[in-house]
Amino acid sequence: MPTFTRDGVTLHYEEQGSGFPVLLLAPGGLRSTIDAWQRAPWNPIDELAPLYRVIAMDQRNAGGGSSGPVSAADGWDTYTADQLAVLDHAGVERAHVLGMCIGGAFIAHLLRTAPDRITAAVALQPIGLADNRGRFHEMVQGWGEERGIPAEDLAGFRDNLYGGDDVLWSVSDADVERFDTPILVLMGNDEFHPQAASRTLARLAPNASLLETWKDPDSIPMAQKAVAEFLAANTPA
Question: Is pTM, for the whole model, over 0.90?
């Protein structure tokens, strides 16, 4: 369970299994921790560790083992830098990435920033903008107050994450059109994970596909099989 410090930020991640690496970016919004996978419809750590080197991380200040300062200048770039630092510390040059909820926004920003590091991506119910900006702002406010973040820093951080008008929050439609990484999208269908976000990513990314049903008990085996086949097809020999 490695923990390391980089530029005043402590980052914690855990590894299971062996083989080609898969970076996991957990659900939970700003409370994205490894433990959050236990509350997902199915746990990708359990599913993937028999075949892959699974690297699951706590995002900074999420309530797990990662922590760092928060300023008005922080935003999606901050998280992407942390995620790439984890890959670097683990000695990983290229990896698959699987993320859920805010993990979808993290994936999109990784694909914009460092596409050469990502071999294939699986986005489970990515968050998105759909007449719900106020709910995201409320979420950030509650998270920041719990941590005693000064109001000015919290406001800047909030606006950097959820102040724009891009459906996927972390990247523009034009960014998505330039992605050439294979992407499998498992559709969201609620207030924080609107269908529009999943459909936008699947429609605009040139090598993306969409799985609409995947969370109910009858669909889980099919979804697990689809993810397994997608990753296997895109794993370097």
Answer: yes
